[in-house]
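Structure in, sequence out. Go:
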């Protein structure tokens, strides 16, 4: 069947636009216009094109109670495609598709879901409380947040995690559910702590997963895998506090070599840079007088010993902080900074050139042609300039956030 036909197009729906999420604390939240939030992506559930076939006026409501994460699903539409008009092709079975991703037992009756809210007051986060902090958006009252640490030995938490992890499908690209049979996983879960009718309540705000890799001979290298702050809680500093909590959990452990990050998104890299810069500014080796002398082994040692930051990230933080203290109106000072960064960026190219020289002594002429794809000097300089400008833009983003945090 030609789904691209005009008639079929009327029944193709953008799945991102059709989805509506809510974290429900009380029945009034069901009607509150400020409560809904949408999906940033849906291709991991509804396919690469992020479309649902077979409906007009489609609304897919996926609600959770704010603490226990009891789920409710409702699919509503104005019109459903008749298979007889589309060569027998049925409309997408949305409940079936979502059932493959959601924990078994999600609710489809709204009254039953509302009744389940009475159990929210009984909910207490699983695991060990390891941090508490207050934060909020500019101009708003500060809220209290708590971070709980869990591992895979906590069976009650693992049941809870089955519900919690469903959020990553809509907000973390390339995500997948983790294998909780692997005992190396660690979890850091953040809740807002609030009062309702005189009772202490908890609402999920975000979480992070960390995998503890073995490092020879008897060390570990924790790798941050997934970090998610849910949309209603974004842009108020929770992500930075969650990352600091992870750091603080590991920095005192002698067996930890350093903390790495698995394939960070641009947004998470900004967050990591911001927190790392704040930490490194506390070190004498990262003060302005030292930064202008250039990157050195003392910086590498301090970053690893004090904050478990690896050499590559330490170099990046050095470049951000050196740019911060560089007088860009001073032509020579600014030039020296740019050359320092470009020399680092050019290192892989220099290694390639050395390899080509070695290959010339061992390869036949036709085999050597494969190496001719290396860029000319002019192309390389142009590429270096582009890389540098992109990097400076990234660094400036972090510098501006650092300045805002001090104002």
């Amino acid at each position: 069947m030609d789904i691209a036909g005009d008639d079929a197009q009327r029944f193709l729906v953008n799945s991102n636009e059709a989805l509506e999420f809510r974290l429900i604390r009380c029945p009034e939240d069901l009607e509150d216009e400020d409560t809904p939030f949408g999906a940033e992506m849906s291709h991991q559930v509804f396919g690469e094109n992020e479309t649902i076939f077979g409906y007009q006026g489609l609304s897919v409501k996926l609600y959770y109670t704010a603490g226990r994460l009891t789920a409710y699903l409702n699919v509503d539409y104005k019109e459903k495609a008749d298979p007889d008009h589309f060569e027998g092709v049925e409309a997408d079975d949305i409940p079936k598709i979502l059932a493959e991703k959601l924990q078994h037992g999600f609710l489809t009756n709204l009254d039953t879901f509302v009744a389940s809210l009475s159990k929210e007051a009984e909910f207490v986060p699983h695991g060990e409380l390891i941090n508490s902090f207050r934060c909020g958006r500019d101009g708003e009252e500060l809220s209290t947040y708590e971070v709980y640490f869990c591992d895979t030995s906590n069976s009650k938490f693992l049941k809870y995690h089955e519900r919690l992890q469903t959020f990553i499908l809509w907000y973390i690209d390339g995500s997948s559910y983790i294998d909780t049979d692997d005992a190396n996983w660690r979890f850091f879960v953040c809740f807002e702590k609030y009062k309702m009718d005189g009772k202490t309540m908890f609402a999920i705000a975000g979480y992070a997963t960390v995998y503890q890799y073995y490092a020879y001979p008897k060390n570990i290298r924790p790798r941050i895998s997934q970090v998610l702050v849910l949309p209603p809680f974004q842009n108020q500093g929770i992500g930075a506090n969650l990352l600091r909590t992870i750091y603080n959990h590991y920095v005192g452990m002698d067996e930890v070599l350093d903390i790495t990050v698995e394939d960070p998104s641009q947004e998470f890299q900004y967050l990591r840079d911001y927190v790392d810069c704040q930490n490194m500014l506390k070190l004498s080796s990262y003060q302005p007088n030292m930064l202008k002398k250039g990157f050195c082994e003392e910086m590498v040692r301090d970053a690893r010993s004090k904050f478990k930051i690896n050499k590559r990230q330490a170099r990046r933080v050095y470049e951000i902080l050196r740019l911060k203290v560089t007088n860009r109106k001073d032509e020579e000072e600014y030039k020296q900074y740019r050359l320092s960064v470009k020399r680092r960026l050019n290192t892989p190219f220099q290694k390639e050139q050395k390899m080509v020289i070695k290959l010339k002594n061992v390869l036949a002429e036709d085999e050597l042609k494969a190496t001719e794809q290396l860029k000319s000097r002019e192309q390389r300089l142009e590429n270096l300039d582009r890389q540098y400008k992109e990097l400076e833009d990234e660094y400036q983003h972090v510098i501006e956030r650092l300045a805002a945090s001090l104002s």
